[in-house]
Amino acid sequence: MRYLVSVIDNGSGTGTAEEGVAIDAFNDMLEANGHWVLAGGITSPSNATLIDNRGGAGIISKEPLHNTTEYVSGFWVIEASSDEEALVLATEGSKACNRRVEVRPFIR
């Protein structure tokens, strides 16, 4: 099963050099053990564009979906055999990046 592990932060690009090393090691472990699917960091919500084309509305707004002090600053998509394994991996990811993370399974 696949899981989205979202990294929660109050800034983007705030990682230290040491955190970068730990994240690289975590990524290497994910790859070596067949858990790696995709990962990336994303810019702050100030760079977001919100699009609503329901019913052909054509609304494009230079604003984030939510105005909040914490937001998703990066993510991993991982492969795990169970919810329990995904939580173990996400716990290791939280330690590596020194941030809170949220784990959500993909719809099967």
Please describe what this structure looks like.
The N and C termini lie close together (8 Å). This protein has 2 helices and 6 strands. The protein has a single domain (2-105), classed as 2-Layer Sandwich (Alpha-Beta Plaits), CATH 3.30.70.1060. Helices cover 29% and strands 32% of the residues. A 4-stranded antiparallel sheet has the order 2-5-1-6, with helices on one face. Strands 3-4 form a two-stranded antiparallel sheet. The chain has helices at 17-32, 83-97, and strands spanning 2-9, 36-41, 50-52, 59-61, 71-79, 100-105. β3 and β4 form a beta hairpin.
Shape, per Cα inertia axes: globular
Second rung of CATH, namely the architecture: 2-Layer Sandwich
As for the CATH topology, it is Alpha-Beta Plaits
Identify the CATH class: Alpha Beta
As for the number of domains, it is: 1
Cα Rg: 16 Å
Spatial arrangement of strands, main beta sheet: 2-5-1-6
Q: What class do helices, strands and sheet pairing give?
A: alpha+beta
Our measurement of the CA-to-CA distance between the termini, rounded to an integer number of angstroms, reads 8 Å
Number of strands: 6
CATH superfamily: Dimeric alpha+beta barrel
Strand content: 25-35%
List segments where confidence is low: pLDDT < 50 over at least 5 consecutive residues: none
**Residue-averaged pLDDT, rounded?**
95
Give helix and strand order, one letter per element, not per position. Answer: EHEEEEHE
- So how many helices? 2
